[in-house]
Structure formats: structure tokens, C-alpha cells
Amino acid sequence: MAKSRVLVVGGTGYMGKRLVKASLAEGHPTYILRRPEIGLDIDKLQLMLEFKRQGAELVDGSFSDHRSLVEAVKRVDVVVSAMSGVHFRSHNLLQQLKLVDAIKEAGNIKRFLPSEFGLDPARMEHALEPGRVTFDEKMIVRKAIEEANIPHTYVSANCFAGYFAGNLSQMETLLPPKHKVSLYRDGNVKAIYMDEDDIATYTIKSIDDPRTLHKTLYLRPPENILTQRELVEIWEKLTGETLEKINVSEEDFLAQLKGSDNFVMQVGMGHFYHIFYEGSLTNFEISENGEEASQLYPQVRYTRMREYLKRYL
Predict the structure, then answer these.
(1) CA 169 to CA 181: how far, in whole Å?
(2) 21 is catalytic
(3) 182 beta partners
(4) Does residue 270 sit in helix, strand or coil?
């Protein structure tokens, strides 16, 4: 069976560049939306040119030009969006509504994967302000997709290792602590840590799979379901050093969140709260509306956190 042609929107971003690499590695004819909005961002341009050298095609299109989006979409079978949804980089999830309009008009797309990749927004109706904006906007995009009857798959990829594992789930840093580590409550709530390259691999494997059509693909490889304390212990074994543990109570964490005057920090803390105090990644069973990636694709050798953390030694 011929491989689907894949258009990656946001193909030079944090997840987008990984999705392009995974698509090329899986043998898909791969296209990247080249938007004039990149302006003088030379790094993005050079990355696109490198992907072109590797076999990707660059397709011009702009969110301010509906016709250009429609024409770009008509060239492919599958659209994967990697528009940024984090406030400390850029936050433009709702721009995807223009992409939905283009896909609806083009009428040829076999599968659309919007930019999600984190907590399942359908389970976050109770989310704290102001961080709930991320989930609310993702649900607005979902509603538009479903009302337009666009074939789709949603991907819930849990904790990006680059932001949650290398720093032992500490806030405001990407590096592991040297002496002290904060544990949320007692550090015994289960989370799920994913190497971003593996997220891209699982995502691309799902695009032609009838088992994932109109479903949420949850990335829950069993050896990466860990408590924060277990993650810290892996690091301690690798380094041979013991960190001082500081337990942060739920009350103290919420007080810090509410007392902050930094909007971006409040958004991030809200997400940390749901992950490490509520256990929102693991406190439910996958329903008939979902599938688990490592069970569908056991051939993927996903990165365990012990191997991942060795990069930081």
C-alpha cells in the first residue's frame, strides 16, 4: 500500500521538526508548510532547507491567505499540526481553526492530527485557571474538526522528557538539580515521561492505521510510567549521589500558584498541579474511544528514562 503524503504544519518547531524526521524515516512523502511569517528567522529557514535536502518538499502557505492553505492541503493525504501551545514560547493553537477551514474546503484529507500531545483536554474540564486556557482552546479546535466531519486522530503524549525528565520535574529549569530536589507532595504520584522523538514516531505510525481513526492515541509505554520519586532515584543511581528531598504540600503549591503575578508561571504551575498532585495522566483507564501506542506498535523501541537521563551526566 502506498504511503500517505504528509503535510507537517509547524515543521521547524520543537515537535514539528521531530515529526518531519519521523515521517521521512517511515518513508512518507513529506511536505512542510513554508509560511512567509518566518520573516528573517534564519534558523527556521535553514532547517527547512536541510529537510528539503533530505527529501521533504516545501509548500508555500499562510494563515492570512485561505486559498494558499487550501492549495497546500490538496497536495497531501494527511495533515499533522505542531502549532505551539505553550505560553513561554509562542501560543497560537486557535490559528488551527483556519487550517480546519482549509481542510474542510479541500475535501481530500484522510486524517488530521491537530496539535495536542499533552494531557487529554477532554478530561480537563475541571482544570485550574489560568492554565485551563490550553485545554479549552484544544477543545475548541476539536469541536471544529468534528463539526466539519474531518477524519482525525488525537494524540495524548503526556510529559515531554525535555521539560519534565531531565530536570527531575523541577520548575523554572531544564537541568537536573545538584543538591536539593522538590517532590510534589511525597513524590509518589504516577506520571508518564516520553522522549520527544518517540512521540513523533508513534504519532506518524498512527496516521494510516484504521485502529486510531476518530480515536485518541495515548502514549503509555509501561516502563516510562514512573513516579517523580522513581525518576529521582534513577538519577541518583546514575550519579552515585543522593539529593536532599524537599516535600511540597498541595496547600503550599496552590498558595504559590495563586500568589504569583506571572501569567506564564501560573499556567505552567496549573499543569504541574494536575500531573503531580491529581495524577491526571494515569488516574483513568483508556476507554473504547482510545488506543495505547506501545500496544499498537510494539516494534518501537522506546527510550527508557534511565537511558534518557544519561545525556545529562
Answers:
(1) 9
(2) no
(3) 246
(4) helix
CA of 158: how far to CAs of 209, 219, 220, in Å?
A: 21, 7, 8
Amino acid at 90: S
Do 42 and 69 touch, CB atoms closer than 8 A? no
Q: How many angstroms separate the CA atoms of 300 and 222, rounded?
A: 13
Q: How confident is the model at residue 37 (pLDDT cuts 50, 70, 90)?
A: confident
Q: How distant is the alpha carbon of residue 95 from its chain centre? A: 17
Checking if the pLDDT of 87 tops 80, the result is no
The CA distance from 299 to 26, in Å, is: 13
Quickly list H helices, the chain.
16-25, 42-53, 66-73, 96-106, 132-147, 161-164, 196-206, 228-239, 250-259, 263-273, 293-296, 305-309
Q: Please give the mean pLDDT across all residues of the chain.
A: 96
Q: 69: which 3 cell numbers?
A: 492553505
Per residue in 199-218, pLDDT (tens digit) is 999 999 999 999 999 999 99
Residue 98's CB is within 10 A of a number of other CB atoms, namely 15
The structure's pTM equals: 0.96
Catalytically annotated residue among 17, 138, 205, 215: 138
Q: What's the grid cell of residue 145?
A: 474538526
d(CA 247, CA 228): 12
Task: Tell me whether the omega of the peptide bond preceding residue 114 falls within 30 degrees of 0, making it cis.
Answer: no
- pLDDT 10s digits, 100-133: 999 999 999 999 999 999 999 999 999 999 999 9
Single-letter amino acid code for the residue at 122: A
**Which of helix, strand or coil describes residue 298?**
coil
CA 247 – CA 78 distance, rounded (Å) = 46
